[in-house]
């Protein structure tokens, strides 16, 4: 889809800035002129792209023309990127010449500000400008040729206002429904009818708006038709109206449709709304607004107000839409019905109904079932495929359909993809590009939000957060795709509830693959010679390899447009080596994902791939070192090395990666220190784990965190004896916008400062929400902990101290886990923040006022949990854990019983695992068990394994790989 891509490119070109330094002004002027001309030409061409894209389907010449255009555009991007890289290189070299920037702080700041704020080329007159300028000129000339060529095709231009290029047709819907073809949805229908029934009977209730939301083809309209035509519903409303709204949202048309018979001829909005008001005056109505797209509140308000003011109480509006934004705009998300997939049985019924009419169903029974699986619960697909089979009578024909890719079936393309096309066309160009990029992943893949966003950034589709004024951020795109039902099966963060992962419906995946079949290709091992991969091979820009067995990166990829590849990824493969001359061909690569392969060594030639922005080598267990040439990849912004368990060190010159924003090194057990130069990476925002310590001159020290602009989540692992509190203070952690912090003091031996002094010096940002403190040896807590007013999650573990901290004093804590504190034998009232059994009289009466979840794990010597006598009295003035809803205890073998106060909380879930004595105490059938069962609805006592809730796993992950 060239259109979206070129729009995005134009956006970037338009924001190019030119800077002149030190002479050479003329050259830069030439370049500027050329780039501006290029941009201008492209803008003119853009106006005809929509038409061209429609026509390429049938006209091969148009297709070739579009391909050429795309090619030139990509080349321009690459040339500009090459130049920009040269500038970065100069910067780095200058830095080298001037020595360690840490020594001259002010100079450094100015210097580094450059790459951080540039999202696309800025021109300096330096270095190889003389090489690149002719290239740009040449591309400009080529584009002019393409521009001239376009006249041949007489495209329709958007600008000229002549007839809009044909949009995919939006189907009209009506309220009539043929019940015989509908299967499933009984539950949904009953729920909906009950709501309609209830609301229409209730006296004194206003207008109710119910949005029915789901992807295109999932059956929203059908469900609504079922409810609309149900006899129980019919009797309830004086007036029922079905309006097919579609896009654009035309208030006058809708109002006229509501008026029904004899609508006014006038198109005066006010007059039409007046007439509409009269027609519904004091009537109880049921209005269906089918297929609403607009999320413009102004348009909606104009219609809503007269509807609310004139209808009788108990009136209802049903709205079907595939956009959550519509429900948001109507402020009715609370009543929203989310329509999910249909089960396979119902799909089969639909399919059979369409395919066989009066023929024998059993004839192709087994194949039907297989074909229906392709529908993945999408009734529209079942219907379409069923009707496709209607007049197919030969087994061979059935098998052909079964084995074909779903998008090769013309009928599917026309009917199933059509509703998706409508959704797709409604997206902004940037979002289109991002959606299409998902085609590089296999079906059923679970996308992770941050991963995906970083990949989009690597392709320059979106810009990073700090750069909002220059374009769309990845987060906005992700949320948009979620809101428009392109994603589903959400995984949410246990702390914040934000969506961090999702999947894509198979049919949507088919759809994006269909749209990108020239550009994105997934090749399974053994498939490399099929005709399809051959045909598209030379256009491919994103290549994904699957199931490749142990051996070198296969050479055949060099026949796949290798020099133009922008993404190369592997899934479920066992690549061991990469030939230098193969990697040298991948000159345009921006993303390289070789995770989960057993690669021993990366060729040093990787340093030549100057456009690389994203490298993922995670879970390469054999990899010991990275080639130092990686440090010449000045554009690199993400480096993922998670789980590289044999990796011993990072390259010495990492400090040159001045664009590096995200570095992931979690679970690299042998990576005991960082090179000191990491401290120069001022672009760095994400650093998941940070080993600090080791040789003071060579290795990264905690104080070197000072210049990093970290955000989000960080695990600090203090090591060796080089750590004292003055070094720790240098890190100025309070300045870093961290929400999650884990401090692991395990390796912290012989340090000159005590463990609590070090903790005191690590005072985090006041917004910190989640804190883990591991291996703290000492009985006092850090002096800042009570001042963290946003601290909700706390994990404390591996401390050898006997006394527990008075954690009950932390008023904001919502979830608390104590982990493996082996010296603890007794948890007394001190834990609650009380001095002793009587001191509650003088203290605030609320203890752990917000605590919801409390967990103890592996406290293997813990025997007693002391109660609070006062609290058992009826007229007690204190409350303990008033909000507690979940208590989990795992691997505490010696603990005898739970204190009584626990049973006066609101506890809903009690999970006891691998706690021998507790299990005996609360044995099934015993009096004690009966006592707790009466109070707590969910009790599980078992000897199995226990899951640590995600909020705490963030702190403990290193110990659980
Ligand atoms: C209908 O109303 C009754 C009584 O007001 C209520 O108990 C029931 O939950 C309602 N049903 C639905 C589906 O809202
Ligand atoms: C199947 O039916 C469609 C119309 O329903 C018709 O256009 C097509 O030619 C038929 N195909 C065969 C093989 O009979
Ligand atoms: C890289 O590929 C692996 C599978 O091999 C996948 O799990 C991972 O998400 C990919 N990483 C990125 C950043 O795409
Ligand atoms: C580390 O590499 C050695 C070979 O060099 C290998 O035997 C060992 O299994 C590797 N470790 C891991 C965790 O894979």
Compose a concise summary of this entry.
By secondary structure, this protein is an alpha/beta fold.
Search tags:
eight-stranded parallel sheet; single chain; 35% helix; alpha/beta; ten-stranded parallel sheet; binds 2-acetamido-2-deoxy-beta-D-glucopyranose; 30 helices; 961 residues; Rossmann fold; 15% strand
In words, what does this structure look like?
The protein is of the alpha/beta class and about 950 residues long. Helices cover about 35% and strands about 15% of the residues. It has 30 helices and 34 strands. Helix 26 links the parallel strand 23 (about 735-745) and strand 24. Helix 1 (about 1-15) packs across helix 19 (about 430-435). It is globular. Bound molecules: 2-acetamido-2-deoxy-beta-D-glucopyranose (NAG) (4 copies). One 2-acetamido-2-deoxy-beta-D-glucopyranose (NAG) binds near residues 621, 622, 645 and 646.
